[in-house]
């Protein structure tokens, strides 16, 4: 049945609605009389009265409401009818004030509907949202609760979502908390929303407990995609920033657990834990936490975070101490004593802050050493910090800790420098016995390389020398270089400890022989050098020092034997300095008395030295033959040298060869040398050879030979660029000694050479293109033809030069030029032309 309010409403509506149906309504009424329970018939009847019907005026809402009521009375279990009816009733009043009685009438209609539709979640949700619009908080909450009781558990999710939104917006925290707690029993993974809600309303304690319980569940998965790392950090921040509000949770174990698990945020967590105790007023405990954090962090970033928080805490404490609290106390003895106590407290805090700032470098160095305890450089920096503070106890402690901590096999740097610096510190403080003990222990450390151990022994010996303990230094180095014959005969010693390989160190042996030279006798020094040579640890420089020492003591033959052993032991180019010094010393010693032996030495040197690098030896050989041997042999040496050394170095040798030939045999004997030079020097030096050769022939009056030399040289010198010197001299030569025919021939050759070099450049480009493209195209053929022509021209020029060389010297009338001694010297002393600049590409 209907309620009383509905009956009154329907009676009031019936007064204004005509009861007699008309038109289409009459047809539907007749159908309904025959079939009153047809849902389709009622729906068509309602559709005929809707505003969407064309060609007919809309029926009043009161008529439609009466039809809905009649239909629902006949079909009270139709969800479709109730949903249409309730939606239309809501739409009719949505523009009215929420205090209008029509809202209450719609509420009553919803209540009537829920009698039959209590299993339909859509009706419940629409009703609850409609009540939310009316701001009826309690009734809305009751309705949501009724819905949860009426609907099966499988449909509760549809109700809880708008329910949670409603309680968040209701601004009634207590109600929201109770609803959330009920909701978490159904959906425990939604704890993040509840925790966020609690934090927004200042319920820090319950939020912390919720997050802690969630993190303790292994099956917990964040709905917002947060990792346990992030949630744990949020819990730590929540507990530390709101410490007074947290009860029932052990905050310190929570934060320390995060410190053990999450190493990326150690600095922030230490600062947060200290902040927790600061907020609780436990300042001494906060300092202990800061100190512990500074002593355990492993990165500079974390150290900076903790140190900055620590200094800020101390500065805040000082500022709080300096601020006056209330009006000044009355004057009196008690006030004076209290003021003195406050001043002492303030001085104590200032001293504490200054002490913290002074320790920053030390603490930072400790952080780096915790990262890598085998970092030698950082240990030296730590010692330097204590030395700057003038704290000898801490310096010694740091050195002792360093040498005990650093593993030589894993050291980053040179670990022996720590031992040496440790001993030097005791030495500087006049405690030689302790320094010796430290160095003795240092010699037994298993270093990675022999050089580290050698540096320790050498430093020990130098320390003894600094204190005039020469005999002790010599005994030390004798210990260091001692090796048994069995170990010396062993081929592979790389797998032995460094203490058994110390005899391979050149540094120790060098210092040993230096001390023997200064403090020992000649016999002991020679024995040390010979032992080095037997053990094959000598270097060319040490060997030269040995030879020089023997020479100073007039043991020349022994010195030469040392050189012999050296050049036999070392290959080129290591033996270069040995050979040069040996040859110079031998020639200087015996001069012309043992020429044959000197020649043998030079020949041995030239056999072992690559010909391209034997220029200096050839010059020494030739100088020896000039001064103490035969000039003929000197010329032969020069000739061998000019043909053996590298092509780039031949022209300077030819110049020396020509000068010596002129000095000993005259100018005419230089022609074969020039002809050989033309064929043997580098391409870039042919111009200089031809210019000098032609000038010589011109000075001797051999005009035809000079012209032939110019013609030959022109084939290698393009007219432009740096080779213009030859063409200028040839031009001057033809002006002075030629005629019209020879001058024209010169111009023809000039044009031909210019065209030849231009064509050579083009052919090179074409040949490169042909190689890239492949095949035997026209460009490749032209390049071959041009190269063949060039070869023929070169052969003709060579034949001409050979004919002139075989032709006896003649001089024509009018072309004879008297060559005085001064002119000849000018020819032979011509300055070498400047090096040609790089030719511009055509």
Could you please describe the fold and organization of this structure?
The chain is an all-alpha fold and 842 residues long. Mean pLDDT is 77; it is low at 1-17, 53-57, 326-332, 777-783 and 808-842.
List the total number of helices.
42
Rg, alpha carbons: 56 Å
Mean of the pLDDT scores?
Answer: 77
Distance between the termini: 117 Å
By helix and strand content, what is the structural category?
Answer: mainly alpha
Low-confidence stretches: 1-17, 53-57, 326-332, 777-783, 808-842
Query: Which word captures the global form?
Result: elongated
Give the biggest beta sheet: none
Please report the total strand number as a whole number. Answer: 0
Portion in strands: under 5%
Q: Considering DSSP H and I runs of 4 or more, what fraction of the residues is helical?
A: over 70%
Q: Summarize this, please?
A:
The chain has 842 residues and is mainly alpha-helical. 72% of the residues lie in helices and 0% in strands. The longest helix has 34 residues, at 740-773.
Helix/strand layout:
Elements: H1 4-16, H2 24-34, H3 39-48, H4 61-74, H5 79-93, H6 101-117, H7 121-133, H8 137-150, H9 156-169, H10 173-186, H11 191-200, H12 204-216, H13 228-241, H14 251-261, H15 266-280, H16 283-294, H17 300-322, H18 333-358, H19 360-371, H20 376-388, H21 392-405, H22 416-428, H23 432-442, H24 450-466, H25 470-481, H26 485-489, H27 506-519, H28 522-535, H29 540-552, H30 556-569, H31 576-590, H32 595-608, H33 615-628, H34 631-644, H35 650-665, H36 671-680, H37 686-699, H38 703-714, H39 724-737, H40 740-773, H41 778-806, H42 821-828
């Amino acid at each position: 049945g209907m309620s009383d309010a509905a009956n009154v409403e329907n009676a009031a509506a019936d007064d204004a609605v005509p009861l007699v149906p008309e038109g289409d309504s009459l047809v539907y009424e007749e159908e309904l009389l025959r079939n009153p329970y047809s849902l389709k018939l009622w729906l068509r009847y309602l559709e005929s009265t809707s505003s969407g019907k064309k060609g007919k005026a809309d029926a009043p809402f009161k008529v439609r409401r009466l039809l809905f009521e009649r239909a629902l009375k006949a079909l009270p279990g139709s969800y479709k009818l109730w949903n249409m009816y309730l939606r239309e009733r809501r739409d009719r009043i949505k523009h009215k004030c929420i205090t209008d009685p029509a809202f209450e009438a719609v509420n009553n209609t919803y209540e009537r509907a829920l009698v039959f539709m209590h299993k339909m979640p859509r009706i419940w949700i629409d009703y609850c949202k409609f009540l939310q619009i009316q701001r009826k908080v309690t009734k809305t909450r009751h309705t949501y609760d009724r819905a949860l009781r009426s609907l099966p558990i499988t449909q509760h999710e549809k109700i809880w979502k708008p329910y949670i939104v409603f309680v968040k917006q209701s601004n009634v925290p207590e109600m929201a908390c109770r609803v959330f707690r009920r909701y978490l029993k159904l959906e425990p993974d939604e704890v993040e929303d509840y925790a966020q809600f609690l934090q927004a309303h200042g319920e820090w304690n319950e939020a912390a407990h919720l997050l802690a319980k969630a993190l303790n569940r292994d099956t917990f998965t964040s709905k917002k995609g947060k990792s346990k790392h992030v949630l744990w950090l949020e819990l730590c921040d929540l507990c530390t920033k709101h410490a007074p509000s947290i009860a029932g949770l052990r905050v310190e174990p929570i934060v320390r657990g995060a410190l053990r698990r999450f190493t990326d945020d150690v600095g922030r967590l230490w600062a947060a834990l200290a902040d927790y105790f600061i907020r609780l007023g436990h300042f001494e405990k906060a300092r202990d936490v800061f100190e512990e954090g500074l002593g355990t962090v492993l990165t500079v970033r974390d150290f900076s975070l903790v140190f900055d928080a620590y200094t800020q805490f101390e500065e805040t404490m000082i500022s709080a101490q300096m601020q006056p609290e209330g009006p000044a106390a009355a004057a009196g003895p008690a006030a004076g004593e209290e003021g003195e106590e406050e001043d002492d407290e303030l001085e104590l805090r200032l001293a504490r802050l200054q002490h913290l700032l002074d320790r920053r470098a030390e603490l930072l160095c400790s952080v780096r050493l915790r990262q890598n305890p085998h970092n030698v450089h950082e240990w030296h920096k730590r010692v330097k910090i204590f030395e700057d503070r003038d704290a000898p106890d801490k310096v010694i402690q740091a050195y002792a800790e360093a040498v005990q901590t650093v593993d030589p096999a894993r050291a980053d740097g040179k670990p022996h420098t720590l031992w040496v610096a440790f001993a030097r510190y005791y030495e500087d403080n006049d405690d030689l016995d302790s320094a010796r003990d430290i160095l003795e222990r240092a010699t037994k450390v298993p270093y990675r390389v022999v050089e580290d151990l050698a540096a320790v022994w050498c430093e020990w010996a130098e320390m003894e020398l600094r204190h005039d303990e020469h005999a002790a230094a010599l005994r030390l180095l004798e210990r260091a270089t001692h090796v048994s014959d069995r170990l010396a005969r062993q081929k592979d010693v790389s797998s032995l400890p460094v203490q058994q390989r110390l005899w391979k160190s050149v540094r120790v042996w060098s210092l040993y022989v230096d001390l023997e030279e200064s403090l020992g006798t000649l016999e002991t020094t020679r024995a040390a050098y010979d032992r080095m040579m037997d053990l094959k640890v000598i270097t060319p420089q040490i060997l030269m020092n040995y030879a020089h020492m023997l020479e100073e003591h007039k043991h020349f033959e022994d010195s030469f034997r040392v050189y012999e052993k050296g050049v036999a032991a070392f290959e080129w180019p290591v033996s270069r300095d040995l050979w040069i010094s040996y040859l110079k010393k031998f020639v200087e010693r015996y001069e012309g008395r043992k020429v044959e032996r000197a020649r043998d030495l030079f020949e041995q040197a030239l056999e072992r030295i690559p010909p391209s690098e034997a220029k200096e030896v050839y010059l020494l050989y030739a100088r020896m033959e000039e001064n103490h041997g035969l000039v003929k042999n000197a010329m032969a040496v020069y000739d061998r040298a000019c043909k053996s050394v590298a092509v780039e170095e031949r022209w300077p040798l030819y110049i020396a060869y020509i000068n010596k030939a002129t000095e000993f045999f005259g100018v005419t004997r230089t022609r074969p040398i020039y002809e050989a030079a033309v064929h043997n020097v580098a391409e870039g030096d042919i111009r200089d050879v031809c210019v000098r050769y032609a000038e010589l022939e011109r000075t001797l009056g051999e005009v035809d030979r000079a012209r032939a030399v110019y013609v030959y040289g022109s084939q290698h010198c393009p007219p432009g660029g740096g080779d213009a010197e030859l063409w200028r001299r040839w031009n001057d030569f033809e002006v002075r000694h030629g005629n019209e025919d020879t001058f024209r021939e010169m111009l023809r050759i000039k044009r031909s050479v210019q065209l030849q070099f231009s064509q050579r450049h083009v052919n090179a480009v074409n040949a490169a293109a042909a190689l890239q493209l492949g095949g035997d195209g026209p460009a490749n053929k032209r390049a071959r033809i041009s190269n063949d022509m060039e070869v023929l021209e070169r052969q003709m020029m060579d034949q001409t030069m050979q004919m002139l060389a075989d032709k006896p010297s003649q001089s024509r009338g009018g072309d004879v030029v008297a060559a005085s001694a001064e002119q000849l010297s000018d020819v032979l002393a011509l300055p070498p032309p400047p090096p040609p600049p790089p030719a511009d590409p055509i």
